[in-house]
C-alpha cells in the first residue's frame, strides 16, 4: 500500500444514497465493506463525516437561527452519522471507536489524541465526530485538523464525482478533469475543493488531498494502493 495512515472525509450527503435526507442503510453497508477491505491490508484509517444529510448549521443560520446554536446542531448531526457508520463497520467485523470533540460520554469517547493514535496502531478504525467542537468551523476544517494531529499521510475526500474539474461536470459536459494540481493553482483558478480555512491549513502543513468518487466500488482500495484515479492536490 502507498499510504500507511489515511484520513477519509465523507460528506453527510453521501450517506443519503438516493434518498432526499437521512441515512441509506445500503449505502452505509457499501462504505463499511469498502473500508473493511482497506483495514485488511494493514492501512490505518480515521474518518470524519459531515452532517448535511440531517442538519447544516449554515442553512439553519440563513433561516434566522442563531449561528452558534445552529452549528452545535450540525455537530450533533455528525455524531449521529458517526454512530451509524460505527454500527455498520462493526456489523462488518471491523473494530471501531467513535471520538467526539463535544463530550457525550454515554455514546462516544472524548477526542484524546494519544488515545486515537493508540486505537489506530491497534488496527481500529477511528471516527471523529462533532467537528472541531467549535462553531464557525466546517467538517472540512475538522478533517484537516485531525489528519494533522494523527500524522496522516493523506486526506482522501470521497465525493460523488471522480475528481476536480475546471467546471461542474454535472452541469457542463465539456468540463476538464485535473489528474494533479497544486494548492496554488486551486486557489488561483478559484476551484472548490474544501472551504478556504481547511484548504489553507492543509497547504501550510504540506498535507496532500485526493478527491475521488467514493461511490464506485473498489475505488477506495485503488486510491490507497496508489493508482492514479481522482485528483491529487499537493505542493
Automatic annotation (TrEMBL):
Residues at which ATP binds: 9-12, 52, 56, 159, 165, 168
Top-level taxon: Bacteria
Keywords recorded for this protein, A-Z: ATP-binding, Cytoplasm, Kinase, Nucleotide-binding, Pyrimidine biosynthesis, Transferase
Primary localisation category: cytoplasm
Class in the EC hierarchy, top level: transferase
EC number(s) reported in the record: 2.7.4.22
A matching Pfam family: AA_kinase
InterPro entries in alphabetical order: AceGlu_kinase-like_sf (IPR036393), Asp/Glu/Uridylate_kinase (IPR001048), Uridylate_kinase (IPR011817), Uridylate_kinase_bac (IPR015963)
A GO BP annotation: UDP biosynthetic process
Residues reported in the UniProt entry to bind UMP: 51, 71, 132-139
Coiled coil: none
Regulation: Inhibited by UTP.
Gene Ontology CC terms: cytoplasm
Record's subcellular location: Cytoplasm
Its biological purpose: Catalyzes the reversible phosphorylation of UMP to UDP.
Subunit (UniProt): Homohexamer.
Family note: Belongs to the UMP kinase family.
HAMAP family: PyrH_B
Protein name per Swiss-Prot or TrEMBL: Uridylate kinase
Organism: Bizionia arctica
Amino acid at each position: 500500500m502507498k499510504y500507511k495512515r489515511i484520513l477519509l472525509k465523507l460528506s453527510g450527503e453521501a450517506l443519503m444514497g438516493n434518498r432526499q435526507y437521512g441515512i441509506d442503510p445500503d449505502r452505509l453497508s457499501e462504505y463499511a465493506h469498502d473500508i473493511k477491505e482497506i483495514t485488511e491490508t494493514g492501512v490505518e484509517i480515521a474518518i470524519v463525516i459531515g452532517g448535511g444529510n440531517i442538519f447544516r448549521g449554515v442553512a439553519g443560520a440563513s433561516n434566522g437561527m442563531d449561528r452558534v446554536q445552529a452549528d452545535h446542531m450540525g455537530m450533533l448531526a455528525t455524531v449521529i452519522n458517526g454512530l451509524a457508520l460505527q454500527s455498520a463497520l462493526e456489523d462488518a467485523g471491523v473494530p471501531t471507536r467513535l471520538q467526539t470533540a463535544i463530550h457525550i460520554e454515554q455514546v462516544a469517547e472524548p477526542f484524546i489524541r494519544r488515545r486515537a493514535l493508540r486505537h489506530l496502531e491497534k488496527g481500529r478504525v477511528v471516527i471523529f465526530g462533532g467537528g472541531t467542537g467549535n462553531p464557525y468551523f466546517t467538517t472540512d476544517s475538522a478533517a484537516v485538523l485531525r489528519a494533522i494531529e494523527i500524522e496522516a499521510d493523506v486526506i482522501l475526500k470521497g465525493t460523488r464525482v471522480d475528481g476536480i474539474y475546471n467546471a461542474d461536470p454535472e452541469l457542463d459536459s465539456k468540463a476538464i478533469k485535473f489528474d494533479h494540481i497544486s494548492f496554488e493553482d486551486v486557489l488561483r483558478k478559484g476551484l472548490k475543493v474544501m472551504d478556504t480555512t481547511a484548504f489553507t491549513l492543509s497547504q501550510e502543513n504540506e498535507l496532500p488531498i485526493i478527491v475521488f468518487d467514493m461511490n464506485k466500488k473498489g475505488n477506495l482500495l485503488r486510491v490507497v494502493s496508489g493508482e492514479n484515479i481522482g485528483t491529487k492536490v499537493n505542493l
